[in-house]
Amino acid sequence: MICDNPVTVASVAGAGFMPDSRLTAADPAQPDAGMSSIFDAIDMPIIVVGRNLAVTSFNIAAGAALRITPADIGRPSCEINLLNKAADFQALCERVIEDGLPVRREIRDGYRWFVARIAPYATGGVHTDGAIITLTNVTAFRESIDKAIYEREYTKVILNTVFQPLVVLDAQLKVQTANSAFYTLLQITREQAHGVPLPDLGKCDWKERDVWASLKTSVTDKSTFQAAELECDFPSIGRRTVMVNASPMPFEGAARMLLVFNDITDRKRIEAALRDTDRRKNEFLATLAHELRNPLAPIQNVVQVFRMAEPGEMELKWGREVIDRQVQHLVRLVDDLMDLARITQGKIDLQLVPIAISEVISGAVETSRPLIDARAHELTITVPHRPLLVNGDLIRLAQVVANLLNNSAKYTPTGGKITLAVETQDGEVLVRVSDNGVGIAEQMLSAIFEMFTQAENTASLTQGGLGIGLTLAQRLTQLHTGRIEAKSEGIGKGSEFVLHLPLHNAVKDAQAPCGARGNVTAAFRSPQKILVADDNRDAADTLAMLLKMAGHTVSIACDGLEAVEKAASDRPDVIFLDIGMPRLDGYEAARRIRAEGWGEKMTLIALTGWGQEEDKRRAIEAGFSHHLVKPIDFAALEALF
Known about the structure:
Blueprint: E1 7-8, H1 33-41, E2 46-50, E3 55-58, H2 60-66, H3 89-99, E4 103-109, E5 112-122, E6 130-137, H4 139-161, E7 166-169, E8 175-178, H5 180-186, H6 190-193, E9 203-204, H7 211-221, E10 225-234, E11 238-248, E12 257-263, H8 265-308, H9 313-344, E13 353-356, H10 357-374, E14 378-382, E15 389-392, H11 394-410, E16 417-425, E17 428-435, H12 469-479, E18 483-487, E19 495-502, E20 529-533, H13 537-549, E21 553-557, H14 560-570, E22 574-577, H15 586-595, E23 603-608, H16 613-622, E24 626-629, H17 634-640
Parallel strand pairs: 1-5, 14-16, 20-21, 20-22, 22-23, 23-24
Antiparallel strand pairs: 2-3, 2-6, 4-5, 5-6, 7-8, 7-12, 9-10, 10-11, 11-12, 13-15, 16-17, 17-19, 18-19
């Protein structure tokens, strides 16, 4: 190496020269042949310039690196390749010769990088005779540094982009560095966090959960630490549940621990909601099974009574009434489920017209009266004399109010009091249904309208239901741009449900159309020739019996293919086709019948358990004239004819 002080040429290794033949005879710095050999053996370009900055000598390495020859002796050094890449090279050399202090400068030559060290030299006199320039190729070193810087910056960008907070701790578990997400989470700066023990930065239950002791063990043993849950209070987002994972990381022999924080608050909340939903689903299924068994039990009992003895007129009348009541109950259960499914899927259609709220109340009371009377409740109704109009679907709004009345009837002890009152307030019609029943606990008020939710009352007061009546009422009301609110002072203090509906701007009395279907008792206009196709033999036989009792001629087919064959041979006026039949489903059977000339004018009725709008659309596209949902309403069936 060249020392940092002016030196004589003869005493400095590394300031070697080309052999004597390459030097001028007048050169005072001319070394002997032995010294020249030493300099030529140095694998580092060395150039000597005089006070006039002209090249006086160079070694073999310089000749190869800079492509200079003996002909370049005496040439200005600033013209030499590579040296001319440094704009201030001449000024640097002049300063070194004048001041006697060495300097360094980086020089770039294309993709190559060199460090040029310019040092003064003297041949023994008091004055500096020139400068010695040594060149070190640092291209590989620069590439490695550039790569390290790139990788560091690249890693830094990635870490600061990651949304999970990351922090590096030392052996004492003090913060050394962290990413942006960590500082943002704790609302602190890098300077505020550096060197501070982690527990002092955030309010987390480190010690309560023994996480701190485990971290200390991990950093000592250089082991991983995973899946520790902590409850933390963060300035930026409040109280959260975080999962902490830790891994040791190498750092110049010192212990370091990388901690990763994952916010699992939402996941925990979703998991709890799923558990609650699953629990309520199981409760609903149990309730559904209970509710379905209730009407099936008396139906089965009636059948057993008829088996045990020949029924007389009184027994037949009694049996018919029991079966009719229980079947209607089953139908209501299924209808509620289907209505809720249609609302959830956005497939329910409302017939919105101006209607009098009195018509809604009348329809609802008529529906709920049997349950209210069965429990001997006293029902008080207060409706203003002046007409109050709302824009709504009469049947659906009556269903809403009926559900509220039924809810009060179920959860009010026998002989209770139920009040239904209508009033106006702030441009709304309010329908209040209140009772002196079991009431609602405060914590249940916010969840009472959620699907499958039932208040936790005693079993003796639970009079049936699937826990979807209030949900259905609320969602139907929302479709009318209204709402229902629940009120109660607590268990045993009764409850009140208030239906809010926008008041219609019309002032005239509404002659609202009645949505009730009514009891159509008239017989078909004339006897018909009918084919009933259903793979459920009992369903086919019972419908055939009803139709025969009404004076029609009826034949039966047990699958879709047989239905097509009998339609071709018997040429019926009306065909009832079940959809889910073997060999050929009802849709395909209808298409084949319509494809024949003799089937173009037949009345085809789809009789199925599928009642969604999509099912009705498919039935019409297949060629059906009508779509009826099981169990069939015989009065509605008569109306079709």
